[in-house]
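Private note to self, pasted from the team thread so I don't lose it. Backbone tokens:
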């Protein structure tokens, strides 16, 4: 195209002397080594990465007024999209609360994969077994089959909950527990259970829980007093009160044997319960899954031999006549033989709710239950039943005496082979026959070896019996007194 003389001024093209507007180049800092590939990838978007020495992770400290609101709250949720700065804000809160004289701050972090990789998770906690089991249950790990597993063998979600449990177990009233990515790896049914149990634990223990999550539904699950919304750029507008809580209602209704069979594999006792007379089920309504079978309770006919019953009902079921005793038992007594809770619903009080529901309208005036895990999981007591600690029977004491004589412990029955014809082998046979685990005759050595862990579980556990009486016109919890 021809250029006219009007376009020239002083031998230059008009406008050529003006400085062209340059595109804005944004620099980003990274503690990583910046390779040629990284430079090319970022340069395509107008970004120039520059290496910088960064000894500590970035923190976003809260302002003084924000920190005051955090300290005045029991449950705090830091929410926002991934990358919104939740972790930086948590580190800022941790730094602000870690000043001398402030509350102790515990941070839930997975630090168990390298340290003590073969140690069972329950052994990584200290204190009485009951206390450890309670902590694990509050952290969403109320599954005894997991307690002996090393933390390095757990799933991502289970390890996250165990990291919570370790921090919870060390926390004391007045302390602060910080949990980043709270319930992030969990399905939403498990997330709801964990949020409810953690909220209850924090309030009951008077501990401040500060959790962070990108899941929008967690706010309604956790029911925080204070929400820090990192999606809001204006720091003055980031803090607000929590939204209305979400509920996943539980209802108790008559069930069938099919409900029991659906959850039977979760029970610690393999044999089927005695002849059942009633089954109740707990149904939990969830947003994503709809109605979920949360638990089941089985009522059975009681056994005729129960020496401990005289402690709860002196003389009532133990007259001089066996036939009269049997009639009294069959007429006035029923047994809660099974209570099973589906894993995703543990920690929500399903077991206690099932027991309370039955005790309000029992089939007979007297109700009993026996639980080997009663000391670890006392839901029968929470439902209003009277506990009775069971002493070792004469048969148990005889086997214990044999173990002591051989310098063995009950755990050795599980871990050590039983020598054929030994004192322990003979006493195992005697014990098993007395408890009707086997019939008459001499069992082979393979059977004796299988009897050993059965006896060990009996000797190692602290079973408890439970009793309850429904008095006429009584709508509340009864007692064991007649």
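Design output:
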């Amino acid at each position: 195209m021809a250029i006219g003389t009007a376009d020239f001024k002083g031998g230059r093209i008009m406008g050529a002397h003006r400085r062209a507007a340059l595109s804005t180049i944004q620099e980003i800092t990274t503690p990583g080594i910046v390779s040629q590939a990284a430079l090319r990838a970022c340069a395509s978007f107008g970004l120039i990465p520059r290496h910088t020495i960064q000894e500590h992770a970035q923190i976003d400290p809260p302002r003084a007024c924000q920190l005051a609101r955090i300290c005045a709250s029991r449950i705090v949720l830091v929410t926002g999209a991934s990358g919104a700065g939740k972790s930086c804000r948590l580190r800022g809160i941790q730094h602000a609360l870690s000043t001398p004289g402030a509350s102790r701050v515990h941070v839930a972090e997975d630090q168990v994969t390298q340290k003590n990789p073969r140690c069972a998770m329950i052994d990584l906690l200290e204190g009485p077994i009951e206390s450890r089991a309670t902590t694990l249950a509050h952290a969403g790990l109320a599954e005894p089959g997991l307690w002996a597993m090393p933390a390095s063998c757990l799933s991502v979600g289970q390890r996250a909950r165990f990291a919570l449990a370790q921090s919870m177990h060390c926390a004391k009233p007045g302390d602060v527990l910080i949990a980043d990515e709270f319930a992030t790896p969990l399905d939403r049914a498990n997330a709801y259970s964990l949020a409810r149990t953690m909220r209850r634990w924090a309030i009951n223990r008077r501990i401040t829980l500060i959790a962070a999550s990108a899941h929008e539904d967690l706010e309604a699950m956790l029911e925080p007093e204070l929400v820090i919304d990192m999606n809001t750029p204006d720091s003055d507008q980031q803090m607000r009160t929590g939204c209305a809580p979400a509920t996943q209602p539980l209802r108790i209704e008559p069930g069938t044997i099919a409900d029991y069979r659906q959850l039977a594999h979760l029970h610690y006792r393999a044999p089927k319960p005695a002849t059942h007379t009633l089954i109740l089920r707990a149904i939990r309504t969830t947003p994503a899954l709809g109605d979920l079978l949360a638990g089941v309770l089985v009522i059975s006919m009681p056994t005729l031999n129960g020496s401990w019953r005289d402690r709860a009902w002196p003389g009532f079921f133990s007259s001089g006549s066996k036939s009269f005793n049997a009639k009294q038992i069959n007429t006035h007594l029923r047994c809660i033989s099974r209570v099973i809770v589906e894993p995703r619903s543990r920690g929500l009080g399903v077991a206690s709710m099932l027991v309370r529901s039955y005790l309000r309208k029992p089939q007979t005036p007297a109700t009993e239950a026996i639980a080997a895990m009663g000391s670890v999981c006392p839901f029968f007591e929470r439902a209003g039943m009277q506990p009775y600690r069971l002493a070792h029977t004469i048969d148990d004491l005889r086997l214990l005496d044999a173990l002591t004589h051989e310098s063995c412990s009950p755990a050795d029955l599980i871990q050590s082979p039983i020598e054929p014809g030994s004192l322990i082998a003979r006493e195992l046979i005697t014990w098993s026959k007395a408890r009707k685990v086997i019939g008459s005759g001499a069992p082979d050595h393979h059977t004796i070896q299988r009897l050993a862990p059965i006896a060990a579980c009996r000797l190692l556990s602290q079973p408890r019996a439970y009793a309850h009486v429904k008095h006429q016109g009584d709508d509340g919890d009864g007692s064991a007194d007649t």
